[in-house]
Amino acid sequence: MRYEAPDTIKAAVGVLSKARGTSRILAGGTDLLVQMRSGMLEPDLIVDIKKIPGMFDITSEKGGYRIGAAVSGAELGEHPKVRKFWPGVVEAVELIGSTQIQGRATMVGNLCNASPAADSVPALITAGAVARVVGPKRARNVPVEEIAIAPGKTSLKKGEFVASIFLPKPKARSGEAYLRFIPRTEMDIAVVGAGVSLTLNAKGKCTDARVALGAVGPRAIVVDKAAAALIGTTVDKATLDKLAEICSAAAKPIDDKRGTKAFRIKVAGVLARRAAAIALKRAKG
Amino acid sequence: MPLDTKPNVIPTTFKTVGTRPVRPDGVDKVTGRARFGADMQAPGMLVGRVLRSPHAHARIVKIDTSKAEALPGVKAVITSKDMPAQEGCDMDVLTNVMARDKALYDGHAVAAVAAVDAAVARKALKLIKVDYKVLPHVTDVDEAMKPDAPILHAHIEHEYQQDLLETAGHVKGKKERTLPKGKRPSNIAGRYEFGHGDIKKGFAEADVIVEHEFTTEATHQGYIEPHACLASVSSDGWAEMWVCTQGHFMVRDVCAKLLGLDVSRLRVTASEIGGGFGGKTTVFIEPVALALSRKAGKPVKIVMSREEVFRATGPTSSASMKVKIGAKRDGTFTAADAILKFQGGAFPGSPVEMGAMCAFACYDLRNVRIIGYDVVTNRPKQAAYRAPGAPMAAFAVEACVGELSEKLKMDAIDIRLKNAAKEGTVSSYGPTFGPVGLVETLQAAKAHKNYKVKLGPNQGRGVASGFWFNFGGQTCTTLNLNSDGTLGLAVGTPDIGGSRASMCLMAAEELGIAYDDVRTIVADTGSLGYNDISEGSRVTFSSGLATINAARDCKKKLCQRAAMIWGIPEEAVEWKDGHARPAGANAGNFEPLSIKELAAKASGTGGPIAGHFEVNADGAGPSFATHVVDVEVDPETGAMKVLRYLVVQDAGKAIHPDYVEGQFQGGAVQGIGWVLNEEYIYGADGRLQNPGFLDYRIPVCSDVPMIDTVIVEVPNPGHPYGVRGVGETSIVPPLAAVANAVSAAMGVRATTLPMSPPKVLAALENKMRKAAD
Amino acid sequence: MGAVHISTTINGDTVEYICRPDESLLDVLRDRLGMTGSKEGCGTGDCGACSVTIDGRLVCSCLVLGAEAGGHEIETIEGMADGDKLHPLQQSFLEHAALQCGICTPGFLIAARSLLERNPDPTETEVRYWLAGNLCRCTGYDKIVRAVMDTAKDMKKKGRRNAA
Amino acid sequence: MLTVKLGGSLAAKAGGKSEFEIEGRNVADVLRALGELCPELKPILDKGVSVSIDGTLHREALYQPLTPANEIFILPRMAGG
Fold it and tell me: Whole-angstrom Cα distance, residue B679 to residue B689?
């Protein structure tokens, strides 16, 4: 196994493109090292991107913020502006693992590990986040929902990696939230996750919404029907119950060691409803 | 103590005992200096690794190690061929540490390598080619009992007829039906029965009868330190081992037997031990490390990975149980019946007998019967886990007691008080109890503020009591007086929870000196006589008893020296407050001699002064406990929150109250994990699906509240200071206490553990559906 | 597999080592540098027994490669006491009997110190969630949480006294 | 005559008989006599059992003196955690 720590994106793309066998990007390493340890994965090349300038930066851009690929959950959580604009995204990222994991784990890593249960992904989707993908060709911007295509699989091509994630400026009177269910209070992988974002007009009617579910399908599920159910309403109790129903119906989970199908279907609705209620509160300010 | 007829006078006041000083090994443990199993190095040390079966049940057709042996850096490769059966060795243990003709569970060791480093060792394992013939497997206890289940051991036979009648419907899916008569190969390794009276008659007298079937999953002790050992066998056959174990004398004797060594040629030193809870009372990698070292001619260190710990050490049994209790309107129990079926993994020896003996031990029953089945399955051989067998049995029994209190509209503590075992009660397992403290724990629990807190919506309160025997066993200690009057105490029982502090306290108390003047060490197998394992909550009792008597022996010698110095008869000298004093006026008028002065004069008065005591300690008094817990259930998700938790337990005498409370709290939280989230999950392929702390979910800090404790002290007449073991009883009530609380909160009886949220939510929806139609 | 040469700072001292690229920082600390105070309970970041800080940030050393540790400030349990003077948390753990077997203790101490550096006055809930990544199987956490909270109180009192 | 009771698996091995009248002065006598009365028990007795005398558990107190007044229970050997 080879370990490389290039100091430019160009150099990183270079080694990745030339590499034979399996190569992996190392940012926080909280998934990578576990996979290596278990023997699940024996990469021939590891490219540590933390020496590349900008990877640790959180920079404002067109009213939004660009988060570098190596920014840890802890650092993100300590950024007052980001926390104020996207509390749901920050909370979702902060749910990933323990304090120790937070010291290393990155949002980009959580996205590119392509786990169906990744906590930050539903929240990033509902926040309308866009990934900056760099590679042999010129950099492209990809909506986060298009990165993961199946468990452990991404749409990234050989030589490509995600250099940063852009969180667009939230609209006025908008709010978002992410909730997940785990058996314990900490340290577990999400059994179900639900992210909701919504925007209200001056009259308190919902004009725009996004709903995404985690851990109930091979990848995060964007539930447009649920969003549609919110739009045009004041997000009253009846609407929330309808939202729950739609989300439960949209969930396509499996039985596994972490939860049953029936449980995930029911709880997907419950969490979506609860997340929407929090988002509503936040939108009202 | 055998042959000791002196009446035991238990002091009522203590100077040192009962205080809470800092433990002697404390500073090393907060600074990272303490050396645990994996922390030891040896010159030229090799890394040992074990190859494990990926199959739950498979015949081992052939093992080709040639490629691994040829790999540069590999110094030894072994299989069962290198560990031939020795005269009189325990074949089950030998077969468990290295599979012979069959792999009996996922994770069963089939070969091992020693190499210059971990990378080479890992590579070598990949080069070993094992040719398996996969066989049908069974991991569920009820499935394994079926007459047509896949058979693990041809030599285990059982006569089915009678059981199927007796436990009709217990062998699920197999109602009474005709079977070939006589013994036939089976996974039922034993059938045990305890009890007395006439249960038919008893149930006939009952006004209310409660009956339920229960299941519990296997759980792991979950000690944070994986098994580790460093073995070094030299060419002349002398061997040394450094190992984290609850019993280094056991490790020495068992390994010597398995490998055909003279016991005297193997010296074992116990490292600091990072948790055991029963899981380190047997051997796994130790004989393998010795065999590798013998073959390689170099020291070999084996450290298990966490995955190996889960797949290949000894979790406890899973259980399938049926309990029936009858009571009169006034709450008096008229009869109790239980059938317990425990699978103990791939070899006989599940703790079902102890579970059967503990099941109804809390109650004074005229008519009681307990039947236990020991069943083998394709799972790792179970090892002891804190009060082995008792928690599951208590879960089933206390759940029924809880339901009786509801049906009879009686307070949960009152109904237990009404039937509580006390001095003179004929226990459900036979013997008559001496002085015991169950009633006292129930009264203290009822008086505690937690029992009076008003509960909110979706909240429930659970109560449960529990029992554990506590053991004594072989113990040998030496107390050496140093030239400056300080003392070195050598015990042979590994310190798994602060026992060195308790030993110092007892020695200091007996000699009337300061706690800091005594230093306790856990001596290696070459320095002391045989000591049984640190198990059965026996250490503070047994090593404490031996320590106190060694101190008395020491005092006697000190008095002799003083008598010599004063030129008066030995009987005329008494020991008080750390000084030898003339006993009364007519003994003569001499300045008392302090222990320091006598130590300084030792060489001139006959040489070193040391106290010794050797015993097979008896008279360990049982410890009873009562737990009260409040939980809240989220009716929409089945999530459960423990709001407050109370442990009340009889310690006989708390030597170091901090560590007594620590045992109470630790046991309670292990129990909370067992009832809420911990379980061995097997796939259809018979492989363990959750061999790690991510999905084997032990409680984390944010899962639990503070654990309130009340120490009850009903002295144990079998110990000089009245000590009872406390380590194990604390894990007996929690399963039932939490289950009763959750049942109360959601209004449905929880009968399967763990009560993970999916199960709780399913139960709630079931209830609503029922209410709907 | 090409070994990597690393120069870094551990507990204030410059340290140089050579390691394989797939070796964790924990392996390096324990097996190459003889610093066995950091423990391996799982090797997958689930137990926290290997907790160290890197540039003041709490991490599991089993989830860091030795190869990436170059040029950082690493703090381990071996550096927690100031000579023979224990850190207040170490003293408090002893006085509260906040350890039984002691295998998880170094990890808890490093994690608790990093909590008190950021939050000198934590609530019980904050303490419990911050320490959720440190598993203890012996104590039920009660005495550990008390030890951390009492240390926070004492340090605040001292702080006030020094200020006055 | 000592009255000796057997618990659990031991009674099963003794052909279901759980109470014996035995001539003897101590535990050793009792175990020897039981071994002779029920050969199926012998291997278990040799491996080691727990003996409860008046409610106190003894592991291998072979020469513990016994009188007809004692309550004597032979129980399976126990292991703890």
Answer: 10
Are B31 and C77 spatial neighbours (Cβ–Cβ below 8 Å)? yes
Cα separation of B111 and B81, whole Å? 10
Domains along chain A with CATH numbers:
56-167 (3.30.465.10), 174-284 (3.30.390.50)
By the 10 Å C-beta count (0-12 exposed, 13-18 middle, 19+ buried), B345 is classed as: buried
B548/B416 same-domain check: no
Average pLDDT over residues A138-166: 97
Beta strand residue intervals within B187-248, DSSP E? 188-196, 208-216, 228-233, 239-243
Instruction: Report the share of chain B in percent with pLDDT over 70.
Output: 97
Q: Which domain holds residue B590?
A: 472-616
Tell me how many degrees the CA angle A156-A178-A184 measures, rounded to the nearest 5. Answer: 100
Do residues B437 and B327 both lie within one domain?
A: yes
Percent of residues in chain B assigned helix, strand, coil, to nearest 5: 30, 25, 45
Task: Tell me: pLDDT of B165 over 60.
Answer: no
Q: How confident is the model at residue B167 (pLDDT cuts 50, 70, 90)?
A: low
Residues of A with CB under 8 A from a CB of B: 38, 181, 183-189, 191, 257-260, 262-263, 266-267, 270-271
Residue-range definition of the domain harbouring residue D36 = 2-76
Q: Are residues B602 and B625 in the same domain?
A: no
Residue B377 clears pLDDT 70, i.e. is over it: yes
Residue pair B751/B40 in contact (Cβ under 8 Å)? The answer is no
C-alpha distances in angstroms, B75 versus B48, B68, B69, C20, C131? Answer: 10, 10, 7, 21, 42
* Band (B3; pLDDT cuts 50, 70, 90): very low
Instruction: Report H helices in C28-136.
Output: 88-95, 105-118, 124-130
Q: Is the pTM of this model over 0.95?
A: yes
Model confidence band, residue B391 (pLDDT cutoffs 50, 70, 90) = very high
Question: From start to end of A135-205, where are the E strands?
Answer: 140-143, 148-150, 153-154, 161-167, 174-181, 192-200
Residue B378 to residue B187: CA distance in whole angstroms = 10
ipTM of the shown complex? 0.96
CATH of residue D23? 3.10.20.30
Cα distance from C66 to chain B (closest Cα, Å)?
Answer: 15
Across residues B462-484, what is the average pLDDT?
A: 96
| Cβ-nearest to B693 among C36, C42, C99 | C42
Q: Are B645 and B705 in contact (CB under 8 A)?
A: yes
| B378-398 average pLDDT score | 98
Range of the domain at C122: 88-159
Q: What is the pLDDT of residue B176?
A: 46
Residue C32 to residues B330, C23, C49, Cα–Cα distance (Å): 70, 10, 18
Find, among B548, B532, B547, B543, the residue nearest to D60 by Cα.
B532
d(CA B123, nearest CA chain D) in Å: 37
| Chain C interface mutation, best of A50, A100, A113, A185, highest count of C Cβ atoms under 10 Å | A100
| Domain membership flag for residue D81 | no
A chain contacts of residue B763, beta-carbon cutoff 8 Å: none
pLDDT tens profile B479-505: 999 999 999 999 999 999 999 999 999
CA dist., res. B545 & res. B503, Å (int): 9
Does some domain include residue B690?
yes
Task: Report whether pLDDT(B209) > 70.
Answer: yes
- pLDDT averaged over every residue in chain B: 95
Sign of CA dihedral B241, B247, B253, B257: negative
Interatomic CA distance for residues C53 and C109, integer angstroms: 11
∠ CA D32-D33-D38, rounded to 5°: 100
For residue B33 the two structure tokens come to: 């200096």
- Indicate the residue among C79, C109, C139 that finishes a domain: C79
